[in-house]
Structures are given as structure tokens and as C-alpha cells.
Amino acid sequence: VFLGILYENGRGIAQDLPQAVSCYRRAAWQGDAFARFHLARMYYHGKGIAPDHAQALHWYHKAEGYSLAQYNLGRMYLNGEGSRPDVEKAIHWFEKAAEQGHDYAQYSIGKIFYARNGEGLEQALFWFQKSARQGNDLAQNHLGQLFETRKEGIEDAAYWYRKAAEQGNRQASQ
Q: Were 81 and a residue from 76, 109, 134, 172 both cysteine, which residue would form a disulfide, CB within 3.0 to 4.6 Å?
């Protein structure tokens, strides 16, 4: 795996993306979850190999337990990359990553529930708070929006908008 990373980034050796893919593939076939993640990423972005979202999806599934792979699976299912869009599968994979503390997965679940308006606002609040407490400015901004709609939440809205703005979130600064 690490030789693949060196080839991919051209550190200490000449950059060779097809060779990086080859290194990742060998390690992936030997069961290395980190290599499977990298191979999936190469397929997804078409680095050193033709882009193939179905293959990316396949290898992300095989990168068991790796939170970034689970987050990427959630994004792919949400956006219909490599499969039909499937919000419930997206939530499933985002939750797996979120359970490991992945703040963007937590934020993504919050966004899905936030879009459902009334029926999902409490769940959106829960997930935005988990993400915001880890410093995710997007979640902090959404918390500001959520609290702003509640009469008793204006002080909380100001707090979260300020936190997001301090991190450079332009929307929160306006």
C-alpha cells in the first residue's frame, strides 16, 4: 500500500499512477482494507485507470470498517454514482461512518433529515450537533438556521452562526 502511495504522489520516486493502481490492487486482493479504499478512490477519480464508479462502489464496500470508505459509499448512494440513487442506503453508510466520529457523515445525515422538514428536524438537530461539536462549520451554520426558526432559539442560533463564521463560513457571516 505505501509503495502505491509513493507512486501516486511521486515522493522519492517518479509519479506513476498506473503503477500506484497496480500496487493498490495487489494489496487489495490480499485483503488490505486501506488498499481497497485507495483502489476505490483511484477508480472513482480515474487516476491511473479509467473512471469507473461501479468499481469504486465495489471496492469501497470491501474496505470494511474504514470510515472514509463508508462516508464515500454514502455519498455515492445519495448521488446515484455507480448505482441508482438510494437515500436509505446512503443513510446506512453515513451512519456507519458517523458512529466512528466522521463529522462530514454526521453532517450529511443531518442534511438529509433537514430536507425532510417537520418529520426530520429532531434527527437533523441531533446529527448537526454531533458534527458541529467536532468543529464542522457547515453543521454549525445549519444549526444556526435550525435554531433561528425557533422562537426560543435565537441565542443558540447566534452562537452557532458565530462559531461557523469564525471558521470562515461565508454564509454564516452574512
A: 76
